[in-house]
Design brief:
The complex is a heterodimer of chains A (296) and B (457). With 296 residues, chain A is mostly helical. In chain A, 76% of the residues lie in helices and 0% in strands. Chain A has 14 helices and no strands. The two termini of chain A are 25 Å apart. In chain B, strands 1, 2, 3, 4, 5, 6, 7 and 8 form an 8-stranded mixed sheet that branches. Classes of the chains: A mainly alpha (296), B alpha/beta (457).
Chain lengths: 296, 457
């Protein structure tokens, strides 16, 4: 049954099942997550129904829309529920790992002087541009693409988010902005775009889901996808934006450097997994067609 | 080290000159062991550079001895251990054909070390519509090595076809087709008494199979247009940025088929052939006047598709405009000087791309160094470093952006042209389909006449 499912559906079902099972265990241990458990179980059942209905159909735009909608829903729910369901906080470990990366010094603190400079406004602009870039990349990958490429994008996207959500779930962290709040001495000089970012973060319930950085992972994945699919111009154009987002997440104190390292690795893994999965599906489809032709 | 640096620079220069370089059959070139890559020669220095930059293994180049006199090339020839051949036609310029024994020895030694040598048996680069007769140098090298090392690692001879959409045009396409390799040791065992002329004839035939050769210049356009019409086949062109690479192998096969079909028709249906050729020529003239390719005739003229096209292209062109402007402005002085110098120095179609690449590299490096030094003086060393990094990167963006904007403009213009005059488009589409139908009918008749049973019918 499972092997008949589309790889993107498999990745989505996997993370939904892991989240639901984790919440079930947490509820059994007395954590107040019954409501969240019900909602995630419903999401799991609903998505399983959609996946069953879509089957192995190739290049369905509706799959892309549903998978991405489920992942975006999880993005908003998981960050909060993880803090209730999981009895530990990963911030101290991540900070420790971060300091180990820079031989005892925190990269976020090392970049603190930059927060006061006018360049931070540019970084805030870049950080704010993540959402338009991601949505544009999603639209341009779902519409007007050959079905195989569309499937590859959706699969990579699902794999990236599913793997990242494992970090959100089992390593709940709020980032340096909360963990190291007392260490910062310089206020962020971010201008109007910083205000927009602050409001957006507040709207989703404050900083959460620090490890890994999905801002970096998703933007890098979109760039790699363009690079691999005959669109080097778009990849080159947006490459500085990915770099700006990376630097901005540190300067704006939302992420540890290890979050970025993990995000970069996951973006490459998701990109490669999607490519291999689609190649295998293509080969399987070809073998199936040949077998059918011989039988017919 | 020098080889790697030069390879990277040449790769960058080829990326800048050609819009796309398509490689087919790369797997036919063994990764290890002695290999002789033998190719046609139509674009001077660009030909060896294409082979050198597209293969991951180190390649030894061969060249005419007179190039050593060029002050710019002499140090490179020495550093890259290029093997020089003394051609008889260069005797007046100081070549000594007697020294070719040394060159052949060097080749044999390089092959014995498991090296890969690229050689052009025509002996001279040219702009003729067909390959020139092959010299026996490549065959001599191969047989000398095989005879000297009968039990050595097998020598693979890889026939290679080099293709250029329009070799004198900046941002045109190029292609390499590596044909199936031939085990020269095995061939020698089967032909123990064969001389270099026999092997040369075989190599020539193989490379002929990988390249399009025409009897006359005027044939190029007519066969090219007929092939374009057949390839378009009534399908909508792929979206911009999703065009598959040129399939040079298939293109050559189609041209060979058209040539064979033409010969068949010319034998006893000359009037029909003339009529068909005139129709193809007339149709090509009409499309040229409109600046439309056969594939673009089948562009869907639908509002939703057009709206998505505008959305997709505007996103790219607006987001890329600042990087394009930066790259274009900063590369403009070097580009203008290169263009002027290359224009003055290129007396032949054959020289343009080579001069652009060989002169472009030092000119661009010089300009970029001066510009970076100016930034260091006016700002700081840190800014100069960032500026220096931005130059090749935004230069590449500017090139790709220019191509994309040009293609988008062309497609938008075609769309508006056909949207305004749908009846005109219908007529052209009908004419294209009628020509394709006639070509396909003739192909079927030709195949039927060539089949073994035709004689008994």
């Amino acid at each position: 049954m499972l092997h008949r499912l589309h790889p993107a559906d498999r990745a989505t079902l996997f993370i939904l099942a892991v989240v639901t099972a984790t919440l079930a265990v947490a509820a059994a241990l007395g954590a107040p997550v019954i409501g969240a458990l019900g909602m995630h179980a419903a999401l799991l059942a609903g998505f399983a129904g959609v996946a069953g209905w879509l089957g192995a159909r190739q290049g369905a735009v509706v799959r892309g829309v549903v998978v991405i909608a489920v992942m975006f829903t999880l993005y908003t729910t998981l960050g909060h529920v993880a803090f209730t369901a999981i009895p530990w906080l990963a911030d101290p470990w991540l900070e420790h790992a971060d300091r180990a990366l820079l031989l005892g010094r925190s990269p976020v603190l090392a970049l603190e002087p930059l927060a006061a400079s006018a360049w931070t406004r540019l970084l805030c602009f870049g950080y704010a541009m993540f959402i338009p870039y991601l949505y544009l990349s999603i639209i341009l990958s779902l519409v007007g693409r050959p079905p195989a490429e569309r499937d590859e994008f959706v699969t990579g996207f699902a794999v990236l988010y599913a793997l990242s959500f494992l970090g959100y779930l089992f390593l709940p962290a709020r980032g340096p902005i909360v963990q190291m709040a007392g260490d910062f001495t310089v206020p962020i000089n971010g201008g109007a775009f910083h205000q927009i970012i602050l409001r957006s973060v507040e709207q989703v319930g404050g900083p959460h889901g620090a490890f890994p950085s999905l801002h970096v992972g998703a933007s890098l994945f979109a760039t790699l996808f363009d690079l691999r699919h005959r669109n080097p111009l778009r990849a080159l154009i947006y490459f500085p934006l990915v770099g700006t987002i990376m630097l901005a997440t540190l300067v704006l104190r939302y992420h540890y450097a290890v979050d970025l390292v993990a995000a970069v690795i996951l973006a490459f893994i998701a990109s490669e997994v999607a490519r291999v999965a689609m190649r295998r599906r293509g080969e399987t489809a070809m073998i199936g067609a040949e077998a059918a032709a011989e039988a017919g | 080290m020098i080889y790697r640096v030069m390879r990277a620079l040449w790769r960058a220069a080829l990326f800048a000159f050609f819009r796309r370089i398509q490689v087919q059959g790369r797997g036919n070139v063994p990764r290890r062991g002695p290999v002789l890559v033998v190719a046609n020669h139509t674009n001077a220095f660009v030909d060896p550079l294409l082979v050198l930059t597209r293969l991951s293994r180190p390649v030894t180049l061969t060249a005419k001895s007179t190039l050593r006199k060029n002050p710019m090339l002499a140090p490179l020839i020495r550093a890259l251990h290029v093997i020089l051949f003394h051609r008889s036609q260069d005797v007046a310029e100081g070549a000594d054909p007697g020294k070719n024994v040394d060159a052949l020895d060097q080749c044999a030694q390089r092959l014995a070390e498991g090296g890969c040598i690229v050689i052009f048996p025509e002996g001279v680069s040219h702009s003729d519509p067909a390959m020139r007769p092959f010299r026996t140098g490549a065959a001599r090298i191969a047989l000398a090595y095989v005879d000297a090392h009968p039990a050595g690692p097998p020598l693979m001879l890889v026939p290679t076809g080099l293709h250029f959409e329009a070799k004198e045009r900046f941002r045109s396409s190029a292609g390499l087709v590596f044909g199936p390799g031939m085990d020269v040791h095995a061939w020698r065992r089967e032909h123990p008494a064969a001389d270099p002329h026999e092997l040369t004839a075989l190599i020539e035939a193989q490379i002929r199979g990988l390249t399009a050769n025409y009897e006359a210049e005027r044939e190029i356009e007519i066969f090219g247009r007929a092939a374009e019409l057949l390839r378009a086949g009534g399908d909508a062109p792929p979206p911009l940025g999703q065009e598959p690479g040129e399939d040079w192998e298939a293109h050559v096969a189609l041209i060979h088929r058209l040539q064979a079909g033409r010969q068949w028709l010319a034998r006893d249906r000359r009037a029909e052939l003339d009529g068909l050729e005139e129709r193809v020529r007339g149709f090509a003239r009409k499309l040229n006047r409109l600046a439309v390719t056969p594939g673009e005739l089948f562009l869907p003229v639908e509002a939703p598709r057009a709206a998505f096209f505008v959305f997709r292209e505007m996103e790219l062109l607006i987001a890329g405009a600042p990087l394009f402007a930066w790259g274009w402005l900063n590369s403009l002085p070097a580009y203008a000087v290169t263009k002027r110098v290359v224009g003055k120095m290129s007396k032949d179609r054959d020289h343009f791309a080579s001069n652009s690449i060989f002169l472009g590299i030092p000119i661009f490096l010089l300009f970029w160094m001066v510009q970076t030094a100016a930034v260091a003086l006016l700002a700081s060393a840190g800014w100069a470093f960032v500026y220096a990094l931005s130059l090749p990167y935004t230069g590449a963006v500017a090139l790709l952006y220019r191509d994309r904007a040009g293609s988008a403009w062309r497609r938008a213009r075609t769309f508006l042209l056909f949207a305004r005059r749908p009846s005109h488009r219908r007529k052209l589409v009908d004419e294209a389909r009628s020509i394709v139908a006639d070509l396909q009918r003739l192909a079927a008749e030709w195949e039927a006449s060539e089949s073994p049973s035709a004689g008994h019918a």
